[in-house]
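Lecture 7, part 2: worked example. A protein chain together with uridine-diphosphate-N-acetylglucosamine.
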Amino acid sequence: MKIVSVVGARPQFVKLAPIHAAARAAGVEHVIVHTGQHYDPMLSEVFFRDLGIGRPDVHLGVGSGSHGVQTGNMMSALDAVLAAQRPDWVLVYGDTNSTLAATLAAVKMHLPVAHLEAGLRSFNRRMPEEHNRVLTDHAADLLLAPTQVAVDHLAREGLAGRAVLVGDVMTDVLLDVRNEVADRPSPIAAELGLETGDHYVATIHRAENTDDPRRLSEVAAALAGLDKPTVLLAHPRIVAKAAEHGISLAVGSLIPHGPLSYPDLIATVLHSAGVVTDSGGLQKEAFLLRVPCTTVRTETEWSETVQLGWNVLAGSAAEIAAGVTRPRPPATDAIPYGDGHAAQRVIDILTA
Ligand code: UD1
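Predicted complex, written out as structure tokens:
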């Protein structure tokens, strides 16, 4: 039994970690192909190192580019790799350009494709991630859904026959890492001289918040005006766009900082007063750590976090400020994202 996993961007490395561990434990030959979509060491290498993945078996070195160039380059590089490997399954993750490229390359070679994190929908057809996930779900043979809501979306699109509810693999990783770092102090509070528990953690990287200079100025001003120091763990995309448009990210409450390794991120969020983000993964991580989250988007794929009160959607500066200062949400023991054993279920299904 041979599985080829194709990954390329930071959140995919997190999802890869528990899959790789479960595959190895089951004696599966697991070949990791890195497209090279993310290449900065803090967006890529540190995740392989800290999450015990080892090194990718194949690195395509595709790098950045427009959607068409990046996706097309990945597809053309994948043909030879998939032809040489001839796996029993090609496993694709999430909703990035790497996901779509691997799916299209594999189905055209008649290789079975399994999509991990299938069925998520924002219903916002302007998001590149929405194009990627809808197209991937309709092309793939097996749809591994993280939540019942995702299964329901697939059923409405006529895909129920290919869907299986497995739970969320990011939860597997989060629960393990939370236990490891629970007794560690916040690395950011120590480094920046902030009081533990008295600052916010922010991440903003989505095209819809970064690429239009007026929108980016609005978001930066909103974060700068918050009532506590706000550490912006800045993805290269927001740094590049802010520099291009002359927008300062070091104003008011806002403290720009480079991206963190996964354990440092979890320790930092755990000891913060709240999260402000447009990341899908971080909304869920905040919920699982029971840290209130304010999401700078008009919709979320992780609707359970909103329904349970631990996440609010915010667009304007006033909404963002109201979100971060809202009263602490009600305690909950709901587990909409599974029991932390999703990866095992995925490997059981792929090897059955
Ligand atoms: C990609 C995914 C997004 C995911 C995010 C996670 C797509 C369409 N988007 O967005 O769904 O949430 O990854 O982080 O696939 N850059 C660097 N170094 C890197 C990588 C990127 O400097 O290692 C810069 C480049 O200027 C690049 C820009 O970031 O043009 C955007 O990178 P790209 O891979 O196109 O998308 P992300 O914004 O990272």
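Residues 9-11, 37-40, 43, 64, 95-97, 128-129, 205, 235-237, 240 surround uridine-diphosphate-N-acetylglucosamine (CB under 6 Å). The chain is about 45% helix and 15% strand. Keep this in mind for problem set question 3.
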